[in-house]
Structure formats: structure tokens, C-alpha cells
Amino acid sequence: EVQLVESGGGLVQPGGSLILSCAASGFTFSTYPMHWVRQAPGRGLEYVASILGDGSSTSYSNSVRGRFTISRDNSKNTLYLQMGSLRGEDTALYYCTRDLSSGFSFDYWGQGTLVSVSS
Amino acid sequence: QSALTQPATVSGSPGQSITISCTGTRSDVGGYDCVSWYQQHPGKAPKLMIYDVAKRPSGISDHFSGSKSGNTASLTISGLQTEDEADYYCCSYATGNTYIFGTGTKVTVL
Lengths: 119, 110
Description:
The complex is a heterodimer. Chain A is mainly beta. Chain A has strands at residues 3-7, 10-12, 18-25, 34-39, 45-51, 58-60, 68-73, 78-83, 92-99, 106-109, 113-117. In chain A, the strands form two sheets. In chain A, strands 2, 4, 5, 6, 9, 10 and 11 form a seven-stranded mixed beta sheet that branches. Chain A is globular, with a radius of gyration of 13 Å. In chain B, strands 1, 3, 4, 7, 8 and 9 form a six-stranded mixed beta sheet that branches. A three-stranded antiparallel beta sheet of chain B has the order 2-6-5, with no helix packed on it. In chain B, a hairpin with a 3-residue loop joins β7 (86-94) and β8. By secondary structure, chain B is mainly beta.
């Protein structure tokens, strides 16, 4: 059974940093691209970042490029999101998602970890 | 990169069919056959319902179907059921190796 379990969320001050983790199990982690998607309270879904299975390529939304870094450790079956220069508008539930093997969609989602940016 | 445009609400009676539209541009919906649809019940993670415009993942009922014409994609729910009441989001791969989600549609079963 595919499982994605996020952790690392919490309350952080504006300008601060946070690292999110996503522990994956039930599939061959290294063969799948992975993504982060977020959802602000009461709002819609927003794409954040992607990384290929071997970690060789990454992509980001315009809203986080230069502030966030996506990475992975295939030996630990874990996906990461390093978040810096955090702003109030980064407050959201952050979901770890797996790429459908045929690409361009998200077939499994974790339950999310909540990041709150406030002073 | 603006969100794809969806109607805020769509409603129907049990057994009816409803269609949710998702309008973008040539740089996203119109440029790639890479539109997916997600169902989200309150307090739950989204669930993939349709990918590559019209394909259903294993286990998804065939009363969900997808299509696309030009810059607009659509999700049709045939034979509406009470458990279909949820929020629905479209998503498209877009130029620049990114993804854009829709604004979301709340489906209400009357």
C-alpha cells in the first residue's frame, strides 16, 4: 500500500525557515517524480515544486522560486522541502504527492502538514 | 500564472448529469493533453479522478468522464450520487515545466 506521511510543519515567524519531510513507503520511491502541493486555509490547491526520481531536475512555481528548495534522499525514501524567507501567504497545508507513472498528474497524496507563518 | 477558471458551484439532483468546466490558455490547457481532475471531501486529501484529459485511474467509477476542447477542459459526472458532493479541482501541465490548478468547484447534490 502506497503511503506518504508528511512532517515538519509548525508555527514560524515571517522571514523564518522550515524543513518539511515526506516519508514514502509501499512503492519503489526512486523511480517516481515527486511533488509538493499546498492549500491555504479555505482556499484552493496550489502547485509548489517537483523533483525527478533521481533528483537530477527540479521545478518550482513562481511564488516560491528562489525561496524554497525541493530535494530527496532515495536511500531513506524521503522527500524534503526547505522553506526560507517565509511570508504570511505561505501559510497552508502542504501535501506531498506522487507522480502518476505516465506523468503530469498526482496519483497519491499524503494527509498534509500545516505551516503557519505569523508573528 | 493565473489559476484556471472553474465555476464556483455546480449543483444537481441525484441521477442527473453535471459538467464542470476548466478554462485556461494555449500555454496550459490548450497546449497539452495533460489535464487532471481531483475530488476533495472536507478535511480530506485530494483524490485523482481523471488524468491525461479523459483517462480514469484504476478504481474510479465510469460515471466520471473528462474531455477537452480548445482551452477548456470539462469533467462530467453522470448519474449524480450523494457521495459525489465535494470540491473538484482541475489541473494542467503548463509551459515552463509547471502545473496550474483551477479555482475549484463545489458540487452540491440537491
